[in-house]
Structure formats: structure tokens, C-alpha cells
Amino acid sequence: MKKGIHEAMEMHEVLNDEACTIEHYSMYTSQCQDHELRNILERQQRHMIEDYHRKLSVMQGHGLDVSAASRLNMEHMGAGQNTHSYPSTNTGTKHLNDKTIAAGALLFHKCGATRSTNAALECSEPHLRNLLAGSARSCMEMAYEIFQFMSHKGWYQLPEIPQRFINHMPSQQQYAQHQYTQQQ
């Protein structure tokens, strides 16, 4: 198998991002007050840890160096433990509220999906590409789960689309399809 520098660089970045997300989840679970949200976060964190270790194993199996990859700080992985303080926009905040925790988790998953997709697009090795594509899909599913929770709580409301816009959409789609077929 050919191993390109892209694979090593992309996997290194993905692993660093995932380690950061997992450590933030430790902080989130220790500060979360909502029982349902805490259960979601704990389950998602377990999944992310398994995925992280799976990526390390695959990299090692393909002969890629993982020594520079971020190591998970497992002493901070338990819920309820004190964690390091992290900067936030409100620097006087010592405790995050549940809405901010959920928004942070959603943001991490959206960024993770984008990061894994971009990394997969840079991989020439099919097994790594599939692993990263699966990771992107997993991030999308976890983001959707957080979105549903936030929507149920009224924390993430989607704006309503004006009816005139909805009525105008089919004609725009037909116009775009017509333009595309004329270019062929």
C-alpha cells in the first residue's frame, strides 16, 4: 500500500481535534445539570473514545507514526471530576449552563464532520478514507441528536421560511435544471 504524507498529516490533525473534543466533553459532563443531556454527552463521549482508539489502531496497522498524536488525558474522562478551566466568551463564568454546553457539543460535532470529510477527501488509501467518511457520518448523527435535544428544549429554533419563498423555489429549481441541461 502506498502511504502518502497527506494521510499522516490529516490523521494527525483529526486525532488532535478528537482529543480536544473528548476532553471538552469531560468538562461538559462534569458541569451539566440536565440528566438527559448528561446521558447524551456520556454516551457520545464513549463513542468518540472508541472511534479515537480505532483510528490509532488503523494508523498503526498501516505503518503510520502515531507517536505525535494527542494522547487522551484519561484522568479527566470521568463525569463529575474537576477539570482544567477553559476560556469562554464570558471570562467571568466559572460554570457553563446547559444551553451553552449543548451548543458547544453541537459545534464540535459540526466541525468534526467537516474536518473528517475534508481529511477523507485528501486520503488516497481506501481504508483510511472509509474510516474518515464513517467518522464524518458519526459526527453528523451526534450533531443531529444534540440538535433534536436543543430543539425540544426550545434552545435551537429554526426560522420560518416565508411562503412566497417556498412558492418561488420550484421555479428556481426548474430554471437551474434547464440551465444545466443546456450546457451539456
From TrEMBL:
Similarity comment text for this entry: Belongs to the CotF family.
Compartments where located: Spore coat
Chief localization: other
Swiss-Prot/TrEMBL keywords: Sporulation
Pfam families xrefs: Coat_F
Keyword field contains Oxidoreductase: no
Protein's organism: Desulfofarcimen acetoxidans (strain ATCC 49208 / DSM 771 / KCTC 5769 / VKM B-1644 / 5575) (Desulfotomaculum acetoxidans)
Example GO biological process: sporulation resulting in formation of a cellular spore
Listed InterPro entries: Ferritin-like, Spore_coat_CotF-like
Keyword hit for Transferase: no
Name assigned to this protein: Coat F domain protein
